[in-house]
Amino acid sequence: MSAIFLSASVPLVGRGSYHETANPFLIQCAVRELVIAVIRQHKIVWGGHPAITPMVWSICEALGVDYSEAVVLYQSTFFEDRYPAENARFKNVVFTDAVPDDRDSSLLLMREIMLSRDDLVAAVFIGGMEGVEVEHELFRRFHPTAKVLPIPSPGGGALNLAKDQRYFADEDLVDVDFARIFRKHLALGI
C-alpha cells in the first residue's frame, strides 16, 4: 500500500508570524477531510505532534479504521516526556533516536528517516510553522517527482508554501472545500 505524508500543526503564538494567518478550526477540518479521502487507499504517515496525533486517532476511531494498518506515526525520543496520550493507542509508532540536548537535530533525524520511506507518493501540508517548510524541502529532495499539495486556506506555513511555490491560483488560496481539493489533487491512482 502506498503512503501519503501529512505535515500539519496548529501554529503557536511566539513562533514567528504563522499564527497570524492560521485558523485552527480549518486546520482540523482539512486534516479530517484528508483522512476521510485517502485512508482506505493509502497509509498516512506523519511526525507526532500534540495537536495532530489526537486528531488522527479520533478520526480513525470515528471511521472504524484499524489504525495499526492505516497510519504510521513517527516520534523522536527527544520528546519522550511530552508524547500525546494518544501515542499509546497507536501500535505502529516508529521511534527515532534523540540527539542528546539538541531538539533541532533530533527533529531533523526523525524527518529524514520518515521522509526517506520509499512508499510515499504524495505529501499534504496543512497549517504549520517552520517545520512544514523544512518538511516540504526534505520531501522534495527525497521524492522530487511526487505530488505536493499545500492546503492554503487554513493559513500558517502551508499558506506560505502555496504562495511562494505558486501551487494555486490566487482565487484558490481561500478554497475551503477540502473534500473537493483532495478528490481533485489526490486522485486514487497516485
Topology:
Blueprint: E1 3-9, H1 24-38, E2 43-47, H2 52-63, H3 67-70, E3 71-76, E4 93-96, H4 103-115, E5 120-127, H5 130-142, E6 147-151, H6 156-164, H7 178-185
Parallel strand pairs: 1-2, 1-5, 2-3, 3-4, 5-6
Helix pairs in contact: 1-2, 1-7
**Order of strands in the sheet with most strands:** 4-3-2-1-5-6
Number of beta strands = 6
Cα(first) to Cα(last) distance is: 11 Å
Q: Could you list the spans in which at least 5 consecutive residues all have pLDDT below 50?
A: none
- Roughly how much helix do the residues carry, as a percent range? 25-40%
pLDDT averaged residue by residue: 89
The coarse overall form would be globular
Question: What number of structural domains do the residues give?
Answer: 1
The appropriate CATH architecture is 3-Layer(aba) Sandwich
Which CATH first-tier class would you pick?
Alpha Beta
Number of helices: 7
Q: Could you please say which CATH topology applies here?
A: Rossmann fold
Q: What percentage of the residues does DSSP assign to strands (E)?
A: 15-25%
Radius of gyration: 15 Å
The main pleated sheet reads as: 6 strands, parallel
Q: What oligomeric state best describes the polypeptide chains here?
A: single chain
